[in-house]
Structures are given as C-alpha cells and as structure tokens.
Specification:
TIM Barrel; alpha/beta; globular
Length: about 450
C-alpha cells in the first residue's frame, strides 16, 4: 500500500524543482506509486540494528559513493568499480578497528542535488541550474535544463539496475575476502605511497592465511551485507515510494535503506524533517558549521523521540580547520541528553574550494585532517567516532588534489568527470582507508598522518 497523504505536505519544502507541467508530474507520481519497492522493510530494520551497534561503539560505518549519480553512469563497470573500492576500504578498516564495518553505498538513488541558486548564467544566457539527472540534464541548453518529471521514473529504473548489480556482486563471489585482499595487495605494490601500508597489508594477509589454515571458511568470507542510501531531497520521488509494511503497519520509504536530510533542508519545521519523522527507515542528518546544540537536540526530539539506537545518524561536515572547535559542544549536549545516535564524519563538503581555473576541488590533506579532528574530539570526550561518509568513484579521475599519487591542480583537467562535486578517486580512497586505519591503532589522534 502506498502512503499518499502526510503532514509533510503542509510544511515548507525547500530545494524542490519548479515542474512546468503538473499533469506530467501527476502521471509520473502515479506510476511510481504502482512500481515495486526497491528495498524491503525487513532490510531497513536489519540496517537499523547494524547502526545501533555503531551508536554503541561496537561497529563502524563506511558510507560512500558518487556525489551525484548519472543515468549514463549506470553501467556494470561503474557500479563494479565503486563497489570494489568500498569493499577494499572496508577490509582495511575492519582489521584495524577490530569491529564490524557497516557498508552503505551512496548508490542507487543519488540522482538529485540541492543547489545554492535556482539559475545559472553562462555567456549572458540564464537557465535553470542542474539539479541532478532525476530533474534535468547537465548540458547547458534550454531543453536539457527544463525540469522533466519523466526523469523521476528514469531514476527509479536506474536505481533498480544498480541494486540488482550490487546484490549480484555482493553475493556472487565478487566480494570474496581473499579476492578483495588481493586487490589491496596489488594497490600497495603499485601505489607511490604503498610502502607506508605494507605492514598493515602484511598483517591482514597473515590473518587470512591463518584462518584458512585452521579450516575457517564462514559464509561471511564470500559475501557481504551492502545497503543503499541517498539524500531524501525530491519529495515527489520519496512520497510515492513510501509504503505501509504488511508486517507492522508502519511506513517505510522503499527507495533506499537509509535516507539522509541535507544541511540545506533540515529546518525543524520543514517538509523534509516532517517526512522523515513518518518513516521507519534509519535516518541521517547532515550538520554543517553553523549548527547549534539546540538545533541538534531539536532534531533528536523530532526524529528519535524514543532514543532508539540505530534510528538516527548525525553526519558532521565542519571543515578541517573548524571541526575541533565546533564539534565538541554538539556531541556533549547530545550525550548529556541521553541520545544514542551514531556520529559520522563527512570530511568532503566542508573542504571544497575553487581553483583559479574555476574548478571545484578538495585537498586530500584537508579531508584527512577533518577525519583526524573528528577522531580527536570523540577520543577526548569518551564517545565513539562512528564512521566516515565520503564521495568517491572507482575510476582514476583527477578531481581532488593530493594523496599518494600527488594529483596537482594542473592535473585536474585530465579527467575531471563529476556531474557536481569533486570525488576521491580509487587510489585516494584507499589511501584514506589505510590512514584512517592507522588512526584507530594510535588509540588517540593528535594530528593527521603525513602523506607528503
């Protein structure tokens, strides 16, 4: 059964497209209401249990994938590359942290993006801004930039394809632990910074060999649990994919396992928070540098009134130079309130800058420094640094500068392919995983490891 009415319809909804044809929008929404679920309520419940372990300090969340997925990028090769990178990072973090790593992809639904302006001007021509493939096209033409409700259906079908591929890869042998570790060994051997990681890679190799010699071969070595997530931005997409679960009679948004509310749409009286209140999925909220402790407590009261571990994840995006000052009061007030939330670091969005050539980029060192600051704050307060949320691709793009391959600003034009914000490439993502693993082993982080 589809949920068609809700109190969120009476609240102000920010960052929504100005659909030019109400009849076409109505037809697209009606079609979405009739389509099968992309995920199942029981899977959402399972993820909530896994995130409860994160909130208790018994697990670590690795959430990552594209800044903005594209329809053209929904290919087996692209999906496989992102999944491979996520799995490689997870193996390193699992060994270093000695806790399970909950793997959540920014995949199978991240087709819409909030924007700071409604229009874009190039060469004196003003057109609607690109809001993601679920709304309009990236090409700077009037036809492409016109919001098209039919794209909501395209987003659904591309999400279904991505989920089918992920399920096949995750359970069909592609995620075998020995194979994933072999990929990491190859990365260490080929990476310019690989010598820094040889010791940890060697330890993982010996641990796997020991378990194999002992005859240990559990199912978990051959398949993985993988969950999907995206920003619940387009309410005309999320509402028709919200269904009543036949087991419990409760509402679930079956477009993804985990939905997050962004920094631009987390107003406590807004439609996005009101929508999130009504569904039983695990929910996350992005918190930027202007977030106050009072706002955090209000969000907790609204989204997790029963203080249920696993229900609410708070994803901070403060910036490398501000996280040590701005994060502590938020964590302290939350802990004093008794909330059992999972704290996760998004080190990407607070560290974006524009080059003289006009390209948005991020410094790898800044990304790493924000993670280090995030760890420091939680170590000092005695709370759990619950995970990282990053934008990456499995391709060898040149969108972020630095890392073991030492991508320079002059290298950015070589393969700058993102549809929106700059992503870590595969090598930079694995650099980050090994260095974050080192932070765990330090039992307290004083400064970001040197990656020069």
């Amino acid at each position: 059964m589809t949920v068609s009415q809700g109190s969120d319809r009476c609240a102000p909804a920010l960052q929504q497209p100005d659909w030019p044809d109400p009849d076409r929008l109505g037809a697209a929404v009606a079609r979405l209401e009739s389509l099968p679920p992309l995920v199942f309520a029981g899977e959402c419940d399972q993820l909530r249990e896994r995130l409860a372990a994160v909130a208790r300090g018994e697990a670590f969340l690795l959430q990552g994938g594209d800044c903005a997925e594209t329809f053209a990028g929904t290919t087996a090769e692209s999906v496989r590359g992102k999944l491979r990178t996520l799995l490689q990072m997870a193996v390193v973090l699992t060994y270093a942290a000695s806790v399970p790593v909950v793997k959540v992809g920014r995949m199978a639904g991240q087709f819409a993006k909030p924007r700071s302006a409604a229009t874009e001007i190039r060469g004196g021509v003003e057109l609607p801004v690109y809001r993601g493939d679920a709304v309009n096209g990236l090409e700077f033409t009037a036809a492409a930039r016109n919001p098209d409700p039919g794209r909501l259906l395209d987003a659904y079908h591309c999400s279904a394809v991505t989920l089918n591929l992920c399920r096949a890869f995750a359970g069909g042998g592609y995620a075998d632990l020995r194979q994933v570790h072999a990929w990491n060994q190859d990365f260490v051997a080929r990476s310019p910074a690989g010598q820094r990681y040889e010791r940890l890679a060697g330890e993982i190799d010996r641990a796997i060999a020991f378990m194999h010699a002992c005859g240990a071969d559990p199912d978990e070595f051959h398949a993985v649990e993988l969950y999907s997530s995206h920003e619940a931005l387009l309410l005309d997409y999320e509402r028709p994919l919200t269904r009543i679960d036949s087991r419990t009679g409760l509402d679930y948004d079956v477009s993804a396992h985990l939905l997050w509310i962004g920094e631009r749409t987390r107003a406590i009286d807004g439609a996005h928070i009101e929508f999130a209140r009504q569904i039983r999925n695990p929910i996350a909220v992005k918190l930027g540098p202007r977030t106050t402790p009072a706002e955090v407590l209000a969000l907790i009261d609204a989204l997790d009134p029963h203080r249920e571990p696993g229900r609410l994840t708070l994803i901070t995006r403060m910036g490398a130079d501000r996280v040590r000052d701005l994060l502590p009061p938020l964590v302290e007030k939350s802990a004093a309130d008794g909330a059992q939330v999972a704290w996760v670091c998004d080190p990407m969005h607070g560290n974006t800058f524009e080059t003289p050539g006009g390209q948005k980029t991020r410094r790898f060192d800044d990304v790493l420094a924000e993670v280090a600051g995030f760890f420091e704050v939680h170590r000092a307060l005695g709370t759990h640094p619950g995970g990282i949320h990053i934008e990456f691709t499995g391709d060898d793009v040149t969108e972020c500068v630095g890392g073991g391959q030492n991508v320079a600003e002059s290298d950015l034009p070589q393969r700058y392919e993102t549809a929106c914000d700059p992503r870590l490439n595969r090598g930079q993502s694995l650099d980050l995983a090994f260095l974050v693993a080192g932070m765990y082993r330090q039992h307290g982080v004083n400064e970001a490891p040197d990656v020069s």
